[in-house]
## 1
Amino acid sequence: MESQFDILIIGAGVVGACIAWELSHYRISTAMVEREVDVSFWTSKANSGIIHVGFHASPGTLKARLVVEGNRQFDRLSEELEFPFERRGELVVAFSEEEVRVLQNLYLSGTKNNVQHLGLLGRERTLEMEPSLNPDLLGALYAPTAGIVGPDEYCFALVENAAANGVELFLGERVVWSATARTSPRPRCWRRHQEGACHPGRPEVCMQGRRTGRAVCRPVPERFRY
Ligand SMILES: Cc1cc2nc3c(=O)[nH]c(=O)nc-3n(C[C@H](O)[C@H](O)[C@H](O)COP(=O)(O)OP(=O)(O)OC[C@H]3O[C@@H](n4cnc5c(N)ncnc54)[C@H](O)[C@@H]3O)c2cc1C
């Protein structure tokens, strides 16, 4: 069976999920193709889930503007799409004079990028806020608007809403270009996974697709915990 769409999104990581959600507000036909058994099964489900505030981005860049604007949208987004999100704030801690200077530069970048409520804290105030930190610290950069999100839940929420709005999702399909791609640039999709394909003896994680119920086992990085 052949289908035609106005737009094809390759990959249901967080970037594809955001694009699908945004496009689902428009009257266009969109398909999203993911080679894994479910949404966000690569980097996007195994990251730290930090919603950064924007002090790392170089001032004046598009990235700086988008990080700051994106951070501000998360209260509304998490309420609307019902995924877990908390603004717990972030402390970046310095243990030497050199590191203190790094924090001062980050503070300056953050201020130029319009990051709200940034503060440079001394040793006592930092330990008062977080008594379990190493007491050898000299100070910290405090960013109260930093947040933490359930990264996979965020992707699922975006895609489920996009799908409810008409985006068609194809899981376990891989987009490939043939050798004649230059003359025929239309991507094709191949079904790839077999149910429960496991490789005993290798350090692998088995995952089951929430939407499809299909399983796959492979080395997958686990999310850091902060
Ligand atoms: C250890 C670690 C911690 C991180 N912590 C944070 C953090 O705290 N905060 C933060 O904002 N960022 C963090 N990041 C970065 C963040 O995770 C990535 O920037 C983000 O996940 C990239 O999303 P993506 O959609 O571009 O890629 P991916 O999540 O990799 O998605 C791409 C998808 O495309 C699919 N795909 C690829 N080729 C094809 C094909 N031919 N056909 C069909 N499907 C295909 C893949 O299967 C995959 O699912 C971290 C990254 C790492 C590694």
## 2
Amino acid sequence: MNLKQMYVSVLMFGVGGLLLFMYLQAWIDEQYAESEENLKQQISNQDIKFYYTEEPKRAPKMLITSQKLDRSHAVLTETVSSQANANPFLEIATSLTPELSEEQQKIKLLLKQFKQVNLSPVMRPLNKSLIKDDHWKAIDEVQEKRRAFLYNFCKKYIKERRPLIHLMRMVSRIYVEDKHKLLYCEVPKAGCSNWKRVLLVLNGLAKSTYNITHDTVHYGRHLKKLDSYDLKGIHMRLKTYTKVIFVRDPMERLVSAFRDKFEHPNSYYHPVFGKSIIKKYRHNADGEALTTGSGVQFKEFIQYLLDSHRPIGMDIHWEQISKLCHPCIINYDFIGKFETLEEDANYFLRLIGAPEDLTFPNFKDRHSTEERTNSEVVRQYLAEIPATERQLTYDFYSLDYLMFNYSAPYVEP
Ligand SMILES: *[C@@H]1O[C@H](CO)[C@@H](O)[C@H](O)[C@H]1NC(C)=O
Ligand SMILES: *[C@@H]1O[C@H](CO)[C@@H](O)[C@H](O)[C@H]1NC(C)=O
Ligand SMILES: *[C@@H]1O[C@H](CO)[C@@H](O)[C@H](O)[C@H]1NC(C)=O
């Protein structure tokens, strides 16, 4: 083989690998979308038993198993499966690589452990050895109920927990605090700014939660996300760290996001989301609204949210919690609620042995004079939209309602 031929074949391998990777990625995304749809369907039919139980369609084996594989291919398949963490790929990778290098063996073992340890429903007991008095008794009882509730929900309805979503995406909203061994899954509009302040202090990156500005919290690059670690680092942390999530009533969270992003000047949400929303859903929109994207109405926002052909994608501020944090796969140890934010958070800080003078901050740093989004405010917003759309909005967040035992909003018809 001369140099040119070699060059060409290396190039072909590269291109082939890329195409294969893109193909598999698309396949995973499709599977994920399908299973989400399935679950919704089954919940609305009150027959939720079969979520994730169907055998996922096999990845067409011939794509990978064309006979003339060499080491570079083997490495490629391993890479694909380690990133995807989907079982069918693991099987394929195994079937075609008789002699794995030590490194590949390790990856394979990790993937296996991942499958066994993190993806079976487990409810680890909370370690309460640092709690010495009865002060937190009532809050602890509520916490244990919530944990059991979520555990039972996931066990009952999600029989086989195959990770049909890209692992890296699954952990991409989780912040890491290595000193106290914490994983915090960020749910926007549920106290996340103050949580990030607390994490900065726990980490030793700030002295107090009080002097950290909103921009430092959200745009400073101090806190690490779980997806910035390698597979081994992710696995170790998921297995041994205390995993915490704070949730909020879905409709309150939605209305709060709408008010924050569309009722105040915003140099991102107005031009990006506002413009597309007004263009599609407002008839006879005037030129100014079309150029600035300001002044989106709640009912227009809901039309966008429920549209199966949204002119612009979703956003973390109104994405379902079930999709942001995957509560049935990650096995969170502590489930806080925005409705009882301070007491839950302070109990949690005592559980993990945070410094005694560190308490959860109670300030609201943006639009601080405005009334907080509470159930009365939500009722007013929901009254603006037709009953059918209210129901569809509720359906849209049905998993979040069910997993965290929130009750459906009541609005007079
Ligand atoms: C519980 O936490 C304490 C204090 O952090 C620690 O010493 C102990 O080993 C932990 N127990 C378990 C079972 O993890
Ligand atoms: C916050 O900053 C102000 C001014 O920079 C300072 O006077 C104050 O002591 C700081 N507060 C804390 C709690 O560090
Ligand atoms: C679920 O919510 C209902 C109504 O708010 C409440 O009565 C019940 O105790 C909750 N269940 C659990 C397990 O928290």
